[in-house]
Specification:
The structure is a single chain. This protein has a domain of about 80 residues: Sandwich (Jelly Rolls), CATH 2.60.120.10. The protein is mostly beta strands and about 130 residues long. A hairpin with a 5-residue loop joins strand 5 and strand 6. The chain is globular, with a radius of gyration of 14 Å. Strands 1, 2, 3, 4, 5, 6, 7 and 8 form an 8-stranded antiparallel beta sheet that branches. About 5% of the residues lie in helices and about 50% in strands. The longest helix is centred in the first third of the chain and has 4 residues. Its EC number is 4.2.1.108. It is an enzyme of class 4 (lyase). InterPro entries: Ectoine_synth (IPR010462), RmlC-like_jellyroll (IPR014710), RmlC_Cupin_sf (IPR011051).
Length: about 130
C-alpha cells in the first residue's frame, strides 16, 4: 500500500514546475503500478502547448476554468470543474487557462518524474521500469 500527501511531495524532486504550470507527481513509474498520477496546477492567464506522443493522459479538472484546443481537429472544449479529457490519440493540444486550474492527471505508461517537455511539448519515450 502506498499513502502519500501533496504536502510531503511539495519541495521535493516530485514537485516539478515550469513558467505556466506545476506538477506534483504523486505516483511514478518507480512505484511499479503501471501508471503515474499527478496533481497539476496551471496558472491563470497562461497558454500551454502539449503533445504526449509516447503517453496516454487522462485529465480531470477539479478547480478553475479554461479551454482545451485539439490541434489535430481545431475543436475547442471548455474546461471547468467536473470535465475530463483523455488524450488517447496522442493529440497535440493547447490548454488556455483563464482561472487557475487544478487537475488530476494519469499517465500510461507511467512517467519516471525526471521528464521535461521538449520544444514541441513532448515527453521522451517511457524508460523501462527497473
Amino acid at each position: 500500500m502506498i499513502v502519500r500527501t501533496t504536502d510531503e511531495i511539495t519541495g521535493t524532486d516530485r514537485d516539478v514546475a515550469a513558467k505556466e504550470w506545476r506538477s506534483k507527481r504523486i505516483i511514478l513509474a518507480g512505484d511499479g503500478v503501471g501508471f503515474s498520477f499527478h496533481e497539476t496546477t496551471i496558472n491563470s492567464d497562461s497558454v500551454s502547448e502539449f503533445h504526449y506522443r509516447h503517453h496516454v493522459e487522462a485529465v480531470w479538472v477539479v478547480e478553475g476554468s479554461g479551454t482545451l484546443t485539439n490541434h489535430e481537429t481545431g475543436e475547442e472544449y471548455p474546461l471547468t470543474p467536473g470535465t475530463m479529457y483523455l488524450l488517447n490519440g496522442h493529440e497535440r493540444h493547447r490548454v488556455t487557462c483563464t482561472e487557475q486550474m487544478r487537475m488530476m492527471c494519469v499517465f500510461n505508461p507511467p512517467v519516471t518524474g525526471t521528464e521535461v517537455h521538449d520544444e514541441t511539448g513532448t515527453y521522451p519515450p517511457a524508460e523501462p521500469v527497473r
